[in-house]
Amino acid sequence: MTTLDTTDHDDWLVRVHHRLTRTCQDQTAQLAELTATAPDAAEAAAHNALLSAARQGLADTVAALRRIEQGRYGACEVCAAAIPAARLDLLPHARTCVSCPR
Question: If exposure means fewest CB atoms within 10 Å of the residue's CB, which of 26, 37, 65, 81 is most exposed?
Fold first, then answer.
Protein backbone atom coordinates (compact mmCIF):
# COMPACT_ATOMS: atom_id res chain seq x y z
CA MET A 1 0.00 0.00 0.00
CA THR A 2 1.29 3.46 -0.86
CA THR A 3 0.68 6.09 1.78
CA LEU A 4 1.41 9.77 2.06
CA ASP A 5 5.07 10.24 3.00
CA THR A 6 4.73 12.07 6.28
CA THR A 7 8.43 11.99 7.15
CA ASP A 8 8.86 15.50 5.77
CA HIS A 9 5.28 16.47 6.53
CA ASP A 10 4.99 15.86 10.27
CA ASP A 11 4.13 19.50 10.97
CA TRP A 12 1.58 19.44 8.15
CA LEU A 13 0.00 16.26 9.50
CA VAL A 14 -0.18 17.76 13.01
CA ARG A 15 -1.94 20.83 11.56
CA VAL A 16 -4.38 18.59 9.67
CA HIS A 17 -5.07 16.63 12.87
CA HIS A 18 -5.73 19.85 14.81
CA ARG A 19 -7.96 21.15 12.02
CA LEU A 20 -9.94 17.91 11.95
CA THR A 21 -10.22 17.94 15.74
CA ARG A 22 -11.64 21.48 15.68
CA THR A 23 -14.01 20.50 12.89
CA CYS A 24 -15.14 17.48 14.91
CA GLN A 25 -15.85 19.72 17.91
CA ASP A 26 -17.80 22.19 15.75
CA GLN A 27 -19.79 19.41 14.09
CA THR A 28 -20.56 17.82 17.45
CA ALA A 29 -21.87 21.16 18.74
CA GLN A 30 -23.96 21.63 15.57
CA LEU A 31 -25.38 18.12 15.91
CA ALA A 32 -26.23 18.72 19.55
CA GLU A 33 -28.00 21.95 18.62
CA LEU A 34 -29.95 20.26 15.85
CA THR A 35 -31.03 17.35 18.04
CA ALA A 36 -32.08 19.71 20.84
CA THR A 37 -34.60 21.50 18.66
CA ALA A 38 -37.93 20.08 17.58
CA PRO A 39 -38.99 21.49 14.22
CA ASP A 40 -42.59 22.12 13.34
CA ALA A 41 -44.15 20.08 10.55
CA ALA A 42 -43.34 22.67 7.88
CA GLU A 43 -39.61 22.59 8.73
CA ALA A 44 -39.26 18.87 9.43
CA ALA A 45 -37.86 17.90 6.02
CA ALA A 46 -35.26 20.66 6.01
CA HIS A 47 -34.34 19.91 9.62
CA ASN A 48 -33.92 16.21 8.85
CA ALA A 49 -31.70 17.03 5.86
CA LEU A 50 -29.51 19.26 8.06
CA LEU A 51 -29.38 16.57 10.72
CA SER A 52 -28.37 13.94 8.17
CA ALA A 53 -25.66 16.18 6.69
CA ALA A 54 -24.31 16.97 10.16
CA ARG A 55 -24.15 13.27 11.05
CA GLN A 56 -22.37 12.43 7.79
CA GLY A 57 -19.91 15.30 8.21
CA LEU A 58 -19.08 14.18 11.74
CA ALA A 59 -18.66 10.56 10.61
CA ASP A 60 -16.32 11.63 7.79
CA THR A 61 -14.25 13.75 10.17
CA VAL A 62 -13.99 11.02 12.79
CA ALA A 63 -12.98 8.53 10.08
CA ALA A 64 -10.21 10.88 8.90
CA LEU A 65 -8.92 11.26 12.47
CA ARG A 66 -8.96 7.47 12.82
CA ARG A 67 -6.95 7.08 9.59
CA ILE A 68 -4.35 9.52 10.93
CA GLU A 69 -4.08 7.57 14.17
CA GLN A 70 -3.77 4.28 12.25
CA GLY A 71 -1.13 5.64 9.87
CA ARG A 72 -3.41 5.22 6.84
CA TYR A 73 -4.20 8.90 6.26
CA GLY A 74 -3.49 10.05 2.74
CA ALA A 75 -3.85 6.66 1.04
CA CYS A 76 -6.70 6.19 -1.44
CA GLU A 77 -9.13 3.59 -0.12
CA VAL A 78 -9.73 2.28 -3.67
CA CYS A 79 -6.31 2.09 -5.34
CA ALA A 80 -3.99 2.72 -2.34
CA ALA A 81 -2.16 5.51 -4.18
CA ALA A 82 -1.11 8.57 -2.23
CA ILE A 83 -3.74 11.31 -2.20
CA PRO A 84 -2.04 14.62 -3.10
CA ALA A 85 -1.49 16.92 -0.13
CA ALA A 86 -3.24 19.73 -2.01
CA ARG A 87 -6.41 17.61 -2.19
CA LEU A 88 -6.15 16.79 1.51
CA ASP A 89 -5.67 20.48 2.32
CA LEU A 90 -8.96 21.23 0.56
CA LEU A 91 -10.80 18.08 1.70
CA PRO A 92 -9.04 16.77 4.82
CA HIS A 93 -11.59 13.97 5.09
CA ALA A 94 -10.94 12.76 1.49
CA ARG A 95 -10.85 8.96 1.24
CA THR A 96 -10.00 8.64 -2.43
CA CYS A 97 -7.68 10.16 -4.99
CA VAL A 98 -9.12 12.23 -7.83
CA SER A 99 -8.96 9.30 -10.26
CA CYS A 100 -11.00 6.88 -8.19
CA PRO A 101 -14.76 7.00 -7.67
CA ARG A 102 -15.96 8.33 -4.36
Answer: 37
Q: Are 80 and 99 in contact (CB under 8 A)?
A: no
Q: Could you read off the pLDDT of 41-80 as tens digits, one per residue?
A: 888 889 999 999 999 999 999 999 999 999 999 999 999 9
Residue range 14-26, pLDDT digits in tens: 899 999 999 999 9
* Half-sphere exposure in the Cβ direction for 43 (13 Å, CA): 8
Longest dimension (CA), the chain: 53
3-state secondary structure of 98: coil
- Give 77-80 contacts, CB < 8 A, sequence gap 24+: 80/1, 80/2
Q: What secondary structure does DSSP assign to 35-96, as a single string? A: HH----GGGHHHHHHHHHHHHHHHHHHHHHHHHHHHT-TTB-TTT-PBPPHHHHHH-TT--S
pTM value is 0.80
